[in-house]
Amino acid sequence: MSYNAGEYDVVVIGGGHAGCEAALATSRLGKKTAMFIINMDTLANMPCNPSIGGTSKGHLVKELDALGGEMGKNADKTFIQSKMLNKSKGPAVHSLRMQSDRKKYHIEMKKTLENQANLDIYQAEIVEIITNDKKDKAIGVKTMIGAIYNTKTIIVATGTYLKGKIIIGEISYESGPDGVFPANDLSQNLIDIGVELRRFKTGTPSRININRMDLSKMEIQKGDNEISLFSYENVNNIDMINKNQVNCYLTYTNENTHKIILDNIHRSPLYSGQIEGIGPRYCPSIEDKVVRFRDRDRHQIFIEPLGEDTSEMYIQGMSSSMPEEIQIAMYRSVQGLENATLMRPAYAIEYDAIDSINLNLNLEYKSIEGLFFAGQVNGSSGYEEAAVQGLMAGINASLKIDNKGSFVIDRSEGYIGVLIDDLVTKGTNEPYRMMTSRAEYRLTLRQDNADLRLREKGYNIGLISQKIYNKFKIKREMIECEIERLKKLNIYPNEETNELFRKLGSSEIDVCHRASDLIKRSEISYDNLMALDKEKPNLSKDVTEQVEIHLKYEGYIKLQFSQIEEFKKLENKKLSQDINYSKIKGLCLEARQKLDKQKPLSVGQASRISGVSPADISVLLIYLSQIKRR
User: Fold this and answer.
1) Which domain holds residue 425?
2) Residue 282's pLDDT band (cuts 50, 70, 90)
3) Is the CB of residue 407 less than 8 Å from the CB of residue 461?
4) Is 507 exposed, middle or buried (0-12, 13-18, 19+ CB in 10 A)?
5) Which residues pair with 233 in a beta bridge?
6) φ and ψ at 170, to 5 degrees?
7) Which of 461, 494, 509 is the last residue of a domain?
8) Which of 148, 201, 250, 566 meets the CB 3.0–4.6 Å disulfide criterion with 279?
9) β pairing state of 33-37 and 3-13
10) Cα-Cα-Cα-Cα dihedral of 477, 479, 481, 482, to 10°?
């Protein structure tokens, strides 16, 4: 029996990182929102490593925060270690990573959601997306116990729950992450309404009790002495900046570990054929690493705590789907883990995902109006990739209800744009992981300037308050004024100046130089040069950091902006959705088929579709010029 249980503007299916950001975005934009989650105790869960950020992923979190998302704020509240990665390299690849307290992260995010106006949270499994008779418009959802909720838009953020199957050695069973019930019925419903599905796989390492480890045999991995935070709103939060941090640890596999794995490789579901789903290329299991890199005699293993109030430690770098007894032997062969007992064995998990090529850039399914998808169900991997998709899907679902078009960040504006464009335009045959190398314009898309790039967009959408926006404008003005001041400030040659330069290992000057030119020297920082400036204004670190980066890399940044201008030219050449590419002479057969299937919005997007060559783009440009002359 079914019954009508309510009316909503937006229904969000799933309470993981994508679902949380989607529900918060829609409700904060004034839309009556319902979130459905199979188990309320897994809201914002971290079934894999309880950490936020990392290489390129830190960029995503900073961008999400600039737009008004929640993940960065919640990470700041609950971190137990903060570390800036790649500090020995240039600022384009600096990435913040925080080890989080897993339980506290869940509690704080749940509290935020529960106290959010316009948002109702239900513990229920959605088994059906209800469409109109033509199956081209989503109009409601149905729970397993028959409750029907009518809605204007739906955001599917099911993570790895769709027909989830956990695999450990020869044993497999239906399950979502951490042994939670999977969502079995929704997969078939999606197929029934015309959604194409595929099978992906991911995995997670064991958890081991710290009391069964000998930490003295491992290398201590401390957090940074100077703590960095994700949220721009926490820049001056003294309690967070001065927080005590926990240690992580580093150990290594060895030849004995590798022998155990190779001797039992026939029992690995990955190699026996039991696993059908495609796994992530850039996060391989330990057995995959040992087989693929046989020339290496060891692999790094990081030991990371799950929280401050638990003895469970996460064994980063040793994910596996081997049988449990083989896992025990593997772990005990590692230095410091000789007496290890598995509190939770490692496992692989298979799940259904959609073909992301069938999405528009606003994350709405092309053939079903009002149906949006976000997170791992789109073929991505990682909490951060999921969260930003949830935010974007939430914003676009809200805009659709208001008939205000779409909100899209392009590749030149943010890592969010790179991520979504890659998924939608290029597609993916494996779980997609964000990397700095995927961003063509990474010098201008740094994590430190995410607010300068995207804060105004967040304000215009309605997710950034007037108070926060005013504070941002003051910061932006301070940066601009200081850059201009330094371009006019003269530094004269004298004993004090050259003594400072000698100490810094820089060449002395014998003529007057602009301060802005001297900062371009690699050995001279803004702070030590300003020791010569008696009129230096009192500026915060986040302001002076931007000033220094801008001046040091000014030439390269200008070059990248010129490249972005060329990119924009193709992005601004729009393509009608009514074009019949099969009738355009000169296009190769593959290009015609791909263009007809994906219906790109611009020539720029068309150029990134696999199978569309530069010659095909030239044909398209000629076609557009002919259309324009008619």
Assistant:
1) 3-50+57-76+107-201+351-461
2) low
3) yes
4) exposed
5) none
6) -85, -5
7) 461
8) 201
9) parallel
10) 160
